[in-house]
Design goal:
Length: 389
């Protein structure tokens, strides 16, 4: 058994865990346990996000492809928004995660790839955790704090018996195609009979690739996203979207929690972040920007707490997340549960409603930002439309 110790043990080398390691002060010793062989591989997400957020997080431009148009398509309705203030982006996931990982390493983090967290034992001063490397070697790591950034696995939370792994989850699969002649700047979100009980997407991505994917919610449906995908990409589908696909490069699959937001993030010296903290939007399951943002906020807060011994910065981390997400995700989750039961004609109506929204209102809906002003404006618009028609 190999023994190590550190101030902070971070379980999970996704965007949340790596961002914590990037933002903790350099003098704080930190180890990231990551079960995959490499950071950012395999890809388990489609990487749709927003240019504003990537700029705020100082992500280099070469790591995303800018989207200037977003289209929503159902069986009999279509909505197209030109984007100016709310440009979207599709990320080079491997490139982005490795970029955050490199910064975390420059900041002194030890990243142990191919090493799976197994269990932890708390005591007054912290935790003694065990992990296993792919070689079979066992590690025992002593740490003052432990961060659960293991995504849907909630590996630490479930081991400590704080919360079980989420049972309602979004399950997605996508294919990446090479497009040597280049890709457009239009993203498409697909709803209706082709992807009933979920939604699909066509995302032009960096490095001349096109990502086509579908996601569904289990156990609301037992449909397999792989079967849906096989049925989706037909000659008729390609003709409708004016697509001529190059060779398939790879297929990605991933799982995301789809449960209501629980604002309790700090459990003594165990803190959760990213998907383990359910920070992804309940409407479309977009969580990379929140994982990075709150990973950094947590890294800075924990740095202060370690320096002063005062737990208040960690409380501020928790209350900031509560202020930002609680109300929005409450409405977002209600929307999520409602649209999971939609039939094709409900989707047609919904896409027509989206077509009447301004760019900012559409962005707020996709981002699960349901401020009272947003809700009132959108409701007034729908009522006005009904009265006129
Ligand atoms: C199909 C799909 C499509 C998505 N599309 C988008 C999108 O377009 N835009 C967007 O913003 N978000 C999207 N998301 C959500 C986004 O991927 C997540 O919100 C984001 O990855 C959360 O980051 P994280 O670091 O919290 O978790 P993760 O990215 O899941 O990282 C956690 C890491 O921990 C590792 N791990 C787990 N257990 C252990 C263990 N026991 N020991 C060691 N390591 C462990 C895992 O291997 C994993 O790499 C999508 C998700 C899915 C499933």
């Amino acid at each position: 058994m190999h023994e190590q110790s550190c101030d902070v043990l971070i379980v999970g080398g996704g965007p949340a865990g790596l961002s914590v390691a990037q933002a903790l002060p350099a003098h704080v010793s930190k180890i990231v346990l990551h079960q995959d062989r490499e950071i950012g591989k395999p890809v388990r997400t489609s990487g749709g996000t927003w240019v504003r957020d990537m700029q705020a997080l100082q992500v280099p431009e070469h790591l995303y492809h800018v989207i200037n148009e977003i289209e929503f398509r159902s069986d009999n309705a279509q909505s197209l928004h030109q984007l100016s203030d709310w440009k979207m982006a599709v990320l080079d996931i491997t490139g982005l995660y490795q970029w955050i990982g490199a910064q975390a390493q420059d900041n002194g983090a030890q990243i142990l790839c191919g090493t799976k967290f197994l269990s932890t034992q708390p005591d007054d001063k912290g935790f003694t955790s065990t992990a296993r490397a792919r070689s079979g070697q066992e590690l025992r790591i002593r740490s003052s704090y432990i961060i659960d950034a293991s995504g849907v696995q909630a590996a630490v939370m479930s081991d400590l018996g704080i919360a079980p792994k989420p049972t309602r989850v979004g399950v997605g699969i996508e294919h990446d195609y090479a497009m040597p002649d280049g890709v457009s700047d239009r993203a498409v979100l697909l709803v209706g009979s082709q992807v009933l009980t979920g939604y699909g997407w066509i995302f032009p991505a960096p490095n001349n690739t096109l990502r086509i994917g579908v996601g569904v919610i289990h156990p609301d449906t037992d449909v397999s996203p792989r079967d849906l995908m096989d049925q989706l990409i037909t000659p008729d589908f390609l003709a409708r979207h004016d697509l001529s696909l190059g060779p398939l490069i790879k297929s990605n699959a991933g799982i995301i929690p789809s449960v209501s937001y629980d604002p309790h993030l700090v459990h003594g010296r165990m803190i959760r972040v990213g998907d383990t903290a359910n920070l992804a939007t309940p409407t479309v399951g977009e969580g990379i920007r929140q994982a990075m943002d709150y990973g950094q906020i947590l890294g800075r807060a924990l740095g202060e707490t370690l320096q002063t011994g005062d737990p208040k910065p960690l409380r501020r981390y928790e209350s900031r997340a509560r202020r930002q997400f609680k109300r929005d995700y409450h409405f977002g989750f209600m929307t999520n549960q409602r649209i999971a039961t939609y039939q094709p004609d409900d989707w047609d109506k919904s896409v027509r409603r989206v077509s009447r929204l301004s760019e900012a209102e559409m962005a707020a809906l996709v981002r699960s930002e349901f401020s009272p002003a947003n809700l009132l404006r959108t409701a007034a618009k729908q009522i006005w439309h009904k009265l006129r028609s």
